[in-house]
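Question thread 4412

I'm putting together a teaching handout and wanted feedback from people who do this every day. The idea is simple: show students a protein as raw sequence, then show them the structure tokens that encode its fold, then repeat with a second protein so they can compare. Below is the first pair exactly as I plan to print it.
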Amino acid sequence: MGYTDQRFNVNLSILFTELPLLERPAAAAAAGFTAVELWWPWIETPTPDQSELDALKKALDDAGTQLVGLNFYAGQLPGPDRGALSVPGEESDRFRANIDVAADFAASVGCKALNALYGNRVDGVDPAAQDELALENLVLAARAADRIGAILLIEALNKPESPRYPLVSAPAAIEVVDRVNAATGLGNAKFLLDLYHLSMNGEDLPEVIEKYTARTGHVQIADNPGRGAPGTGDLDLAGLLDRLKKAGYEGWVGLEYKAGDRPSAESFDWLPRPQRAAN
């Protein structure tokens, strides 16, 4: 078992970032991968020109790579922001402006999972008001995802690196998943289970897997400490992925780790090339 029986994809917003965005799908394909995911690539705008969307679609198509996950607009990420949908005013408006743009782009490339980062707490704003705004925006996002036959992902981050982000445990993210599903009746909100973030929070990973695999729509991995490739830290990622498989998870496993000082293409030596193409 180990890594042999997984469907891996490469996150092109953290790997291959030494290359321009439009060259990254081909680089992932050259490294042997056929599936990729992305944070929202245009951090300055939720509504890029159609020509930019078309260029990214062409790059994905030309490389023969399938986009399997896409974030909605999330502010400055990487950077100080952790999403926009619970931040009142301009950022919430930008998130709403992005919903159909992101969903339509996902539909155009056959992407079936959209990740909505919750956003940081804001000084001087009642957390309950932020949560109310978040639910309104997540309902809109869930409906847009449903329109294209996709799921909506809710992600827990880690408190040391994201101290103002309110969803810093698996139960906190699951609570939001349940709230969204109750509000829409669609059932398409799912948990994004990121083993790195949860381990940084000190959660019992086997217990999280046992309790929440059935509610999980996507998995991401990096080793800890360091957020590097598997084998650079202390996590038994092969064993944890085995547990997920045995618990019934059949979805994608996103490689969302830092390559360190070496080129991204050299950071995959832990995964034999025949196992990189999605089966």
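The second pair follows. I'd like the answer to focus on this one:
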Amino acid sequence: MGKGKRGLVTAAVTVVCAVTVLAVPGTAFAAPAPPPAPSPSPGVSVPADKDLEAVREKLDELYRAAAVATDAYNAADEKARLQSAQVAKLTRKIAKGQERLDELRARAGAAAAAQYRGGGLPPEAHLMLSDDPQDFLDGADRVRQGQHATNGLLGELTRTQQDLEQYARDADAQLKKLQAGRKAKAKAQQRIEKRIEAAEKLESQLEDEEKERLARLQQQAADRAQSAWLSSGILDEISGKATKQGKEAVAYATAQIGKPYQWGAEGPRTYDCSGLTSQAWLSAGQGIPRTSQAQWKQLERVDIRDMRPSDLIIYFDDASHVGMYVGDGVMVHAPRPGRNVTLAGAGSMPILGVVRPDPDTN
């Protein structure tokens, strides 16, 4: 910018264009209008609300992209934890199997040595050398029993060896999956950090007065969406009551109000959106999927008119955000970086659908 100070929103809109490449694919952003000519009189030019609206839309876009990447990170993290547990389980099986294999080999070696000491003579020779035929028959029976035992020992030895080889192959496959998952997790983390950094850079271009006006625009947009949702009369049709378990989940979620958003966090001091909902239900004794996208895919879906407190509202076409309905048209959620867990209108964002973690509870 030149020495004569202009409204910093113009600079912010310029940053908008610079960070468009970080946005959700397929979202276009119009080029900003040329900056106004310097005013001959001193003072700061007043930025148009349409410029701030462009900033608001770009911020929403960046934070939504960060939310999508956060879901990918959380999914990779959860998968890595499961794979690590499987690798540990296989490692224990391999150790026990090796101990059993060593024991069987020792027993097989002892049996071979005993047979060697016995001379390895055929039964006919033992009959000819025996003074008492009955002694021979008793001995022959013991030989047969020993042979059966030896055959069983060799069979178990073979099976144990095969099991060990299979455990080793399984462990190798799980390790490869774990390594791939860690790479996916690292890439998702990079995407999150880039988008949040771009959003913070965009906001840093604004002066305090412009930030206040931007906050008002953001609230107005949410209020308009909520008003439109309520004007449909939907609230008159929603009358479901929370179950005992659901009330516990709502109590947990609302008790976190005021705690900061942190991507990838599951509490107790910070949360992301699905970290809050999954922990709320876990506190009520019901485990649910970790991410908003998995919650949408795996939990039972209910019509919005049948919604009851403790149900989860999934937002946006990509299921990138989730909140918990608490009643009276309100939900609790962890919004985005820089915000705290809070109450908001259930219709303040585009609703994809509603899912229920406790469908079989009366």
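Top answer:
Good format. For the second protein you could add a caption like this: The CA atoms of residues 66 and 192 lie 5 Å apart. The beta strands are 300-302, 312-315, 321-327, 330-333, 342-345, 351-356.
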